[in-house]
Amino acid sequence: MDGALHSRRILVVGRESGIARAITLAVRAQGGQVVVAGRNRDKLARAYDDPGITAEDLDVTDDGSIEAFADRVGHLDHVVSTASARARGTLPELHRQDVLVSLNTKLLGPLMLAKHLAPRMDSHDRSSFVLFSGVHAFKAKVGYLGVGITNGAVDFLTRALAVELAPIRVNAVSPGVIDTGAWDAMGDDGKRQYFHAIGAANPVGRIGTVEDIAQATVFAMTNTFMTGVTLKIDGGEPLA
Ligand SMILES: NC(=O)c1ccc[n+]([C@@H]2O[C@H](COP(=O)([O-])OP(=O)(O)OC[C@H]3O[C@@H](n4cnc5c(N)ncnc54)[C@H](OP(=O)(O)O)[C@@H]3O)[C@@H](O)[C@H]2O)c1
Q: Considering the entire predicted model, what is its pTM?
């Protein structure tokens, strides 16, 4: 299979659905081999029927899990972390523990992945990390304080790692609202109303798709002159 990621080996951390799945399928369409990794290897393995995709156990909040994964995974060209545990709620509703879990998963997880995996990657501009930020890093909104500070810190981590790991590149993707399982707690009616309101206000007139985000992630992996950048794939939401 030829393509921009032909013969490249890519780690995609996250769930078996949503954005991680779309990235996995996009990488395969570009000829790459994928290691999908998360807290439930069996669930991930069942989600794909493709010899080019293998599943691994990995908990990004557990250094022992990361080190054991690094020891057994073999060579990687790109590392994508979509792992997330968001701390939604207004200030009175926020609990320290929820914010700590959010930071531990989405900020410190990729930091420790970089620490343990970068030394095993080829040190050139064709290797990269892609982190995940999010629209609330760029748009202060009541109810999204915990989410926003986590994503804002990921945005800085991206630039800091781009300097420290150079010439390995480090970029991030910042999605706007995308219809994934991330919003299931709102219920079907709640989601429909929220997606309609956000889509109507967005300059592009719609919410995003997982394919919008996967396309940007492949771009981040394959553009060898881009590093330290957070790609805002959010329909212009912060501008509205
Ligand atoms: N969807 C959106 O509208 C949106 C908007 C802005 C930003 N984003 C960001 O885009 C990325 C992907 O979003 P998504 O909506 O597709 O998925 P998501 O619902 O944010 O899923 C993230 C997944 O990370 C996994 N995870 C949590 N803790 C983990 C850990 N300690 N180790 C390994 N994996 C862990 C969980 O999978 P398991 O439950 O299977 O363990 C979880 O389902 C996330 O970083 C998200 O914050 C999404």
A: 0.98
